[in-house]
């Protein structure tokens, strides 16, 4: 009974502390109200007690997420901050380089509300998906898809369909857009029109986990796992270091930002590799994660700040003002030995951003095959039945102006995937990297 009483007293104190601090950290008068994103995809409605983000299309305004408007707790837990001045509001989110920018509007449209799977018709779901892609997707021309013609696939207004049939219809409409950042999220899984490369379909055992295990066996040495991350590393007797980066993710401590947290975590690797004569960074099977985490790792390879790429977002028929991403050094003791980065068509998203930044450094050579070519941040849109649509609305450009969306970042040294070797449990690409560094 005494323990139970102590627990209730502790909970009461915590609730009281949060309630008291809410007065300080609730949205102030400059922040409260309704805001529309410059991309036209989102509405943000702030009151003294709640923050609600809506995704908006020509036909719908659907609740994406709602959370208590205790701005300090949101910052600590999710790394999100809100600043407002006049009719402009910036929403900065952990993992993104630049903030989402909003402009104040008079009021929240009356149609805005939560998705309702019980009343959503297949036609409403299709139309919302088509409208969102039509307004925001950046690469129809790249893939040669006539999106206007796909409107003819819309079901009749009174049509009824099973969830499976509706999902198949949406995927038929998206066919030909070989983009891993287009995805439909449902309660029974995620579908994408992305087509895996031929070599990865050569065997049912060629998933990311199995391929990564082949790489581990080929290294032939025990790998050390970096705490709170999936990164593994070893320094071989010949002075060559191997670092496996399976995903751009970290178990971020409460109240910390993921990018700086990864930079601190990777210091363990940098210290272990300080005397290495060469280094292999393996991101071939890395599907991505957070761009700022990628920069946290890359910050150990430069001792000066330098711009590494630009990015723009689609705004109607044009593009937003370019944002330049600069790589800042972790400290003044950069790893400046020869570095080989291994890539493949399964290198995606934030892992590609890592390669895009690192290829600007003089000590880096990229080996393997081109990356997947899906670099845009994902714009998320809620569909009327509660499903989620993700799409690419941003264009990344290397500092020389090159765009690698759809075609992938090309390696400096092309090493085709040896399927026969992989089937035999041997990683020929990794062997080629070791041979090069010998």
User: Compute the gyration radius: what is it?
Assistant: 24 Å
In this structure, how is the largest beta sheet organized? 7 strands, antiparallel
Count of the separate structural domains: 2
Catalogue the unreliable spans: 1-18
The geometry reads as globular
So what's the CATH class of the largest domain? Answer: Alpha Beta
CATH superfamily of the largest domain: 2-enoyl-CoA Hydratase, Chain A, domain 1
The proportion of strand residues reads: 15-25%
Give the N-terminus to C-terminus distance in angstroms. Answer: 69 Å
Tally of DSSP β-strands? 22
List keywords for this structure.
single chain; about 450 residues; alpha+beta; Lipocalin; 2-enoyl-CoA Hydratase, Chain A, domain 1; 2 domains; seven-stranded mixed beta sheet; 12 helices; about 30% helix; globular; disordered N terminus
Describe this structure in words.
With 438 residues, the chain is α+β, with helices and mostly antiparallel strands. The chain is 29% helix and 25% strand. The chain has helices at 2-25, 71-78, 122-136, 140-143, 147-150, 163-174, 208-219, 258-272, 291-298, 350-358, 419-423, 428-437; strands at 33-37, 42-46, 50-56, 61-68, 81-85, 88-92, 100-105, 183-186, 189-191, 224-225, 232-235, 240-244, 278-282, 306-315, 318-319, 323-327, 338-343, 364-368, 378-382, 388-392, 394-398, 413-414. Strand 11 and strand 12 form a beta hairpin. Helix 3 (122-136) packs parallel to helix 6, helix 8 (258-272) runs parallel beside helix 9 and helix 9 (291-298) packs parallel to helix 10 (350-358). The relative contact order is 0.12.
């Amino acid at each position: 009974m005494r323990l139970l009483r102590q627990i209730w007293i502790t909970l009461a104190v915590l609730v009281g502390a949060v309630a008291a601090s809410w007065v300080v950290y609730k949205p102030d008068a400059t922040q409260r109200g309704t805001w529309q994103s410059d991309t036209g995809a989102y509405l943000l409605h702030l009151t003294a007690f709640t923050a609600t983000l809506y995704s908006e299309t020509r036909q719908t305004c659907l609740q994406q997420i709602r959370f208590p408007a205790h701005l300090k707790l949101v910052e600590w837990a999710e790394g999100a901050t809100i600043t407002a001045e006049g009719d402009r509001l910036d929403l900065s989110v952990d993992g993104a380089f630049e903030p989402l920018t909003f402009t104040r509007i008079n009021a929240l449209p009356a149609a805005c509300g939560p998705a309702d799977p019980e009343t959503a018709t297949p036609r409403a779901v299709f139309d919302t998906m088509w409208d969102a892609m039509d307004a925001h997707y950046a690469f129809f021309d790249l893939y040669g898809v006539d999106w206007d013609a796909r409107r003819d696939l819309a079901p009749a207004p009174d049509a009824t369909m099973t969830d499976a049939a509706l999902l198949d219809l949406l995927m038929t409409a998206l066919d030909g857009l070989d983009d891993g950042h287009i995805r439909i999220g449902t309660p029974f899984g995620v579908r994408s029109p992305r087509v895996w490369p031929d070599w990865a379909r050569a065997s049912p055992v060629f998933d990311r986990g199995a391929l990564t295990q082949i790489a581990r066996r080929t290294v032939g040495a025990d790998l050390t796992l970096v705490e709170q991350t999936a990164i593994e590393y070893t320094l071989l007797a010949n002075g060559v270091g191997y670092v496996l980066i399976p995903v751009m993710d970290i178990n971020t401590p409460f109240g910390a930002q993921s990018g700086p947290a990864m930079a601190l975590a990777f210091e363990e690797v940098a210290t272990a590799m300080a005397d290495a004569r060469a280094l292999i960074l393996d991101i071939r099977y890395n599907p991505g994660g957070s761009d700022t985490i990628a920069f946290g790792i890359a910050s150990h390879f430069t001792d000066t700040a330098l711009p590494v790429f630009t990015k723009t977002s689609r705004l109607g028929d044009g593009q937003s003002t370019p944002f330049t991403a600069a790589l800042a050094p972790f400290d003044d003791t950069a790893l400046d030995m020869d570095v080989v980065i291994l890539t493949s068509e399964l290198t995606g998203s934030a892992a590609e951003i890592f390669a895009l930044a690192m290829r600007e450094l003089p000590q880096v050579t990229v080996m393997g095959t081109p990356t997947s070519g899906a670099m845009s941040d994902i714009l998320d849109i809620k569909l009327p039945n509660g499903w989620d649509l993700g799409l690419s609305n941003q264009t990344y450009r290397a500092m020389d102006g090159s765009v690698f969306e759809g075609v992938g970042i090309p390696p400096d040294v092309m090493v085709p995937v040896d399927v026969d070797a992989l089937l035999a449990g041997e990683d020929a690409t990794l062997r080629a990297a070791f041979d090069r560094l010998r």
